[in-house]
Write a structure and sequence with these properties.
By secondary structure, the protein is of the alpha/beta class. It has helices at 3-14, 46-54, 77-88, 98-101, 108-116, 141-152, 180-185, 199-207, 216-219, 222-235, and strands at residues 26-29, 37-43, 59-64, 92-95, 131-140, 157-159, 165-171, 190-193, 210-213, 238-241. The chain has a five-stranded mixed β-sheet, sandwiched between helices. Strands 5-7-8-9-6 form a five-stranded mixed β-sheet. It is elongated and about 55 Å long.
Length: 248
């Protein structure tokens, strides 16, 4: 399919203009105008680019792309290597950050909640920057820890009590410590996110809410994989998700 048609569709589906993001959404590096195969992944890396090269892919689709607000704008060091491999091989780099976190169908937040088995409403909108679910049967803090460990295959860090009774859980994947207070004031007994800054630990203790730090990568595997499957089915193109793990 034409790259322009793909980008037009993604623009309509994800509505990136509705978000005040700190990364450019959409096409970040221009390659071939025709796309027959896509390699999708959570974060851009040389490993992902080399996989795309070996698979003769025409595009790389990621959640975390090349360019970020405040980064060094020079094409040096690892930046030079990534851009060179993309350009020499005519591979498009397409990235969607916040639009892919908060999409009501293909968003990381929604899909993480479904993967964890949390029961929450279907009327999700892009304005809901974190989600919450009530448990039919309360669980202990240690039970939620074990659930996260089992599902994510990664041991979370718990700030709080193993024996705390959890009736309501809130979450925002990736790096989202700022919703902790709002979640606690909204009645959540536990809050899950991927990574936080040091001061959030003390805030969680003072708010008496269990904080689960479950990994940025581990909590954001789901959106780009689901989006890639959707594109493959809708446009009859080859799209392969490659999970290059990160411990953070």
């Amino acid at each position: 399919m034409l790259r322009s048609d793909l980008l037009d569709y993604l623009e309509e589906l994800l509505s990136p203009a509705d978000f005040k993001d700190y990364a450019p959404n959409g096409l970040q590096v221009e390659g071939l105008s025709n796309i027959n195969k896509i390699i999708a992944g959570v974060s851009l890396s040389q490993l992902l680019i080399k996989k795309a090269i070996s698979e003769n892919a025409d595009a790389v689709l990621v959640h975390h792309g090349m360019f970020w607000q405040g980064d060094d704008p020079t094409v040096t060091s690892f930046r030079k290597g990534r851009i060179k491999n993309l350009l020499v091989n005519n591979i498009n780099l397409i990235a969607y950050h916040l639009p892919l976190d908060f999409h009501p169908v293909y968003g990381n937040n929604v899909l993480f909640g479904k993967y964890m088995g949390f029961s929450f409403g279907d009327d999700i909108t892009k304005d809901q920057l974190y989600l919450a679910a009530d448990f039919n049967q309360p669980m202990l803090g240690s039970d939620l820890f074990d659930l996260l460990y089992s599902k994510l295959k990664r041991k979370p860090l718990l700030i709080g009590s193993d024996t705390k009774e959890i009736k309501k859980v809130a979450w925002c994947v990736g790096r989202a410590p700022n919703f902790l207070e709002e979640a606690a004031l909204g009645g959540a007994d536990a809050y899950i996110t991927g990574e936080v800054s040091e001061n959030i630990v003390h805030i969680a203790r003072e708010l008496d809410i269990n904080l689960y730090i479950a990994g940025h990568h581990a909590t954001e595997r789901y959106g780009v994989e689901a989006l890639g499957k959707h594109l493959a089915e809708k446009f009859n193109i080859d799209c392969e998700f490659v999970d290059i793990d990160s411990p953070l």
